Amino acid sequence: MESTELIAYAGATLLASQAEALEALERALRGAGSLREDESIPAIQQAGAGDGRIPLDIGFSAEQQRVVALSARYCNLPALPEELVALSDLRHLDITGNQLIALPASLAALTKLEKLYLDENPLAALPEWLAAWRELRELHADKNQLAVLPEALGQLASLEVLYLYDNPISALPPSFSQLKKLRVICLDKNRLTALPESFWDLTQLESAILGENQFATLSERIGNLTRLHTLDLGHNALAALPEALGSLTNLTRFLYLSDNRLTALPESLGNLTSLAYLNATDNQLTALPESLGNLSSLIELRLYNNQLAALPESLGRLARLQELHVMNNRVETLPESFGNLASLKLLNASGNRLHSLPASFGKLTRLSHLDLRNNRLTTLPASLGGLFSLTFLDLRSNRLTALPASLAELPHLEKLDLRWNKLGTLPGWVERLQERGCVVYT
């Protein structure tokens, strides 16, 4: 039977067994040089911003004389004291950034654990006995040395969040598909070449971070993950995407496809009408589907470092688009519909083959940043004078021999870069721009 003797510790009143566990940790922290002889582990009244995590690297919080949250982050600990087994009511344990190569088996007794942070340790394995943590909802083990995961991982029936970023994991155990409550998975920067078909049975997933692996193909069964709001497939070896990607109609936040080997995007992409951010940079895209114009919620679109020769006319339907990045492609003209991008604030189209701009360009009244350097522009439309919000205009390295006088009417222009053109004598209004404070490079 647990002793009911109470002891004052760091301003808190704790059961004697709880205080003794903290004293054992104190000794370990002093031995690691992370706590002075005259210091105790500080008591924290509020354990983090509503998630139970201690806001300090070293600290604890208690309820009803029992420790419920404990932090010993970046303390250079080579091991944890066995006495921590007494903290039987512990719900949140954060031992990020230590020198732990293994976890003591005594931690299996902490059956009320809900959140465990093991990030930035040299752990080579997670123990099979972790199945004892039946209440565990979050497991964070980023930046360790985990090459394999235990089969017992699948017994964490309450697990909702799993972070395994930057480990040398090459495969997932068969039991992984048993994590039926999993909402967030981060497997970024591992050595995975494929995902088991059963992975696509994790239908509660809302965020799947799968970038920086070695995936060459993707199953059509990805369409099962209809709750996803965020999907990261960047920095893999994907040559194609399944049409089933279009079934993920709850993708509202981010879709990362950058740094793959994609030559095309599926037509079904147009079904993602709630998507806010799309990144398909650093691929081998030669064209975009017309259905791209259906992405009516898109705010930011990144397509740079591809082989695009043109942009689809449907682009003009992206009424909410604020940022468009298409530098380092082969685009020769912009579609006339471009002027319909009423929300556009930033356009970077540098490093293309643009020889002219459509007259509709002047309708982009919210555009503040325009980068057109390293193109083949010979003229600019007078309608550019309608870009009333423009603060930055980069026209370097084009083939301009004259400038429209309407540029003098841009009331907020702060920087105009005209270098490496063939302009000859500059018009007088350029000097007037400078007099009012605009920086002009010629």
Brief digest:
The protein is 5% helix and 16% strand. The protein has 2 helices and 20 strands. The strands form 2 sheets. The chain has an 18-stranded mixed β-sheet, covered by helices on one side. It has a two-stranded antiparallel ribbon with strand order 1-2.
Provide a descriptive summary of the structure in words.
It is a single chain. The chain is mainly beta and 442 residues long. It has helices at 16-31, 428-435; strands at 6-9, 12-15, 58-63, 66-72, 92-94, 115-117, 138-140, 161-163, 184-186, 207-209, 230-232, 254-256, 277-279, 300-302, 323-325, 346-348, 369-371, 392-394, 415-417, 439-441. It is built from two helices and 20 strands. The protein has an 18-stranded mixed sheet, with helices on one face. A two-stranded antiparallel ribbon has the order 1-2. The longest helix is centred in the first third of the chain and has 16 residues, at 16-31. It is elongated, with a radius of gyration of 29 Å. The N and C termini lie far apart (84 Å). The relative contact order is 0.05. The model has no long low-confidence stretch (mean pLDDT 95).
